[in-house]
Amino acid sequence: MEEFRKKIKRKVIISTIFCMSGLFIYFILIRITGAPDYARGILSGAFGGTEVVAVFYIFKLMPLLQDEEKLKQAYITETDERNTLIQKETAKTSSTILVMVLSLAAIVAGFFDPVVSMTLAFVIILAGIISVAVTAYYNKKM
Known about the structure:
By secondary structure, this protein is mainly α. The protein has 2 domains: about 1-80; about 80-140. It has 5 helices and no strands. Helix 2 packs across helix 3 and helix 4 packs antiparallel against helix 5 (about 115-140). The longest helix has about 30 residues, at about 1-35. The protein is flat, with a radius of gyration of 20 Å. The two termini are about 20 Å apart.
């Protein structure tokens, strides 16, 4: 159980670092770039959304560190074989659907804007590279 507690602490620390560095990067980008209003709006939305999720995650994990019963319940939930299998199948199916949708979007975008089409194609290539790298990592690890 102590190992799981360390894992939760690590997640809280990483989320906190993410929040603080995101806040720093946001203000640096706004100050340095002199971005137009549209870009500032996108940046604010993306930053705001990720910050809300990270803060929510921190507030979700913090009570686990203070209550042994909640920590034990979270450990059971996280290590349950059924939940693990559901997560794996969900990730596998979602990534396949995502690549298919991105491929279709790249084809359709090719009729309207080649830059958007190439950007989507590079995203698909990057997803493939990440998939190969993660597969190689887990083949070595397991």
